[in-house]
């Protein structure tokens, strides 16, 4: 496999490819929908005129993406907060391994926070299963997303792992750009953020020294916390159906989830950058441990930082107390008014779903309770 040729197939757009992609996007109905959400009718023509003048990836991100994400945050949340980024070197590239709650917004929010705090935007992994349709491909690759192949036969999965690992190492060590990647395939549906062991093994595939291979990535765990997940009812519905049969996505479902993630209410949002795990890896140097033992240590460190840095909102504490049938956090972390409001929210969200109301409600409650369960398990 010629990695250099394969890199060309998965990389984001370079500047020479931007004008054509911009012209394609302008003509798409989905883009008009996004413009209508972000701008008033009086402003749209001026925006399109400005949009047509975009010639570089940097221009696209500064002229459109940054403003768009900030507007989404302004219109659909009660504010965005940040912690931990000030402790990272803005001249050093990192591999940001993040929990994954929303298809687009998780990484998009990270980009605006990087820029606003004097860091360069990162490249972003984007599953090949989501790269369906010209509009999504153009929008993704203009935002520095690169293709991350999903599925396939065993030999193909191995080749993909070599490609992904090689490309990411190239981006971080040679292009000196950071990368965002989710800690597992797809979004967390049940609220239980968990790093896949296969992901960690993939980073070191084809390399003799596991620890050295991981150290080159400068891995930093990142946690995003939404007070109200924008696609929570859709996740509950998928989990409910999956208990009974294999869940099959409908045509256009991913795009619908992307648009709902943009438009739906989120409450407060917090993003926390953890500390580089190289300090942990350094301590493992020279120890005679099996690969699986090393992977377990790395996974536990990433998960621990994500759990510790998760911002817990009143709804999470309420859900925990309902799930565990306790009043452990009542009065200390929430009051009766907040509890009544959250229960009304659950009832409203589950009322639009088909199925057993009690089971749907329990899935919903468990999803919001899991961040507290994980923190308690780790004794934070």
Please describe the structure with a list of short key phrases separated by commas or semicolons.
alpha/beta, 380 residues, 7 strands, 7-stranded mixed β-sheet, 54% helix, single chain
How is this structure best described in words?
By secondary structure, this protein is α/β, with parallel strands linked by helices. It folds into 2 domains: 3-12 and 78-311, Glycerol-3-phosphate (1)-acyltransferase, CATH 3.40.1130; 315-377, no CATH class. It has helices at 3-10, 18-26, 29-38, 41-51, 57-76, 105-116, 134-142, 154-173, 197-203, 210-215, 232-242, 253-263, 278-284, 291-309, 314-324, 336-350, 357-377, and strands at 77-83, 95-98, 123-127, 145-148, 179-182, 219-226, 267-273. The protein is globular, with a radius of gyration of 21 Å.
Instruction: Indicate the low-confidence ranges by residue numbers.
Output: none
Q: What would you say the CATH architecture of the largest domain is?
A: 3-Layer(aba) Sandwich
Number of domains: 2
Give average pLDDT, whole number: 94
Q: What percentage of amino acids are in beta strands?
A: 5-15%
Described by strand count, sense and barrel closure, the largest sheet is: 7 strands, mixed
Query: What would the principal axes of the Cα set say about the shape?
Result: globular
User: What is the CA–CA distance across the termini?
Assistant: 46 Å
Kindly report the CATH topology of the largest domain.
Answer: Glycerol-3-phosphate (1)-acyltransferase
Strand ordering within the main sheet: 1-7-6-2-5-3-4
SSE order? HHHHHEEHEHEHEHHEHHEHHHHH
Counting DSSP H or I runs of 4 or more residues, the number of helices is 17
Helix/sheet category: alpha/beta
Rg estimate, integer Å: 21 Å
| CATH structural class of the largest domain | Alpha Beta
The number of strands is: 7
Helix content, binned percent: 40-55%
């Amino acid at each position: 496999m010629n990695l250099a040729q394969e890199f060309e197939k998965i990389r984001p757009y370079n500047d020479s490819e931007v004008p054509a992609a911009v012209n394609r996007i302008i003509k798409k109905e989905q883009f008009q929908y996004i413009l209508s959400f972000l701008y008033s009718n009086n402003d749209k023509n001026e925006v399109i005129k400005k949009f047509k003048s975009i010639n570089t990836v940097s221009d696209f991100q500064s002229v459109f993406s940054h403003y768009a994400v900030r507007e989404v945050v302004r219109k659909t949340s009660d504010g965005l907060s940040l912690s931990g980024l000030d402790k990272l070197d803005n001249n050093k590239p990192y591999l940001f391994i993040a929990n994954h709650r929303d298809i687009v917004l998780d990484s998009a929010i990270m980009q605006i926070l990087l820029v606003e705090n004097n860091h360069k935007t990162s490249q972003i992994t984007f599953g090949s299963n989501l790269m369906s349709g010209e509009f999504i491909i153009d929008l993704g690759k203009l935002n520095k997303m690169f293709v991350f192949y999903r599925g396939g036969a065993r030999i193909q999965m191995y080749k993909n792992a070599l490609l992904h690992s090689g490309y990411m190492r190239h981006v971080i060590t040679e292009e000196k750009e950071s990368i965002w990647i989710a800690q597992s395939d797809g979004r967390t549906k049940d609220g239980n953020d968990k790093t896949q062991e296969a992901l960690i093994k993939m980073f070191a595939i084809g390399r003799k020294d596991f620890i050295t291979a991981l150290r080159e990535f400068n891995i930093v765990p990142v946690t995003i916390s939404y007070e109200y997940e924008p696609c929570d009812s859709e996740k509950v519905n998928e989990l409910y159906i999956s208990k009974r049969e294999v869940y099959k996505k409908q045509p256009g479902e991913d795009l619908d989830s992307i648009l709902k993630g943009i438009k739906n209410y989120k409450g407060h949002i917090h993003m926390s950058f953890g500390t580089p795990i190289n300090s942990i890896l350094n301590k493992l140097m020279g120890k005679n441990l099996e690969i699986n033992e090393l992977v377990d240590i790395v996974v536990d460190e990433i998960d621990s930082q994500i759990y510790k840095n998760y911002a817990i909102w009143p709804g999470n504490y309420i859900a925990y107390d309902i799930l565990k049938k306790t009043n452990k956090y009542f009065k200390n972390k929430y009051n009766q008014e907040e509890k009544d409001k959250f229960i009304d929210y659950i009832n409203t969200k589950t009322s639009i779903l088909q199925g057993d109301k009690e089971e749907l409600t329990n899935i919903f409650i468990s999803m919001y309770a899991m961040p507290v369960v994980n923190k308690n398990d780790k004794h934070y």
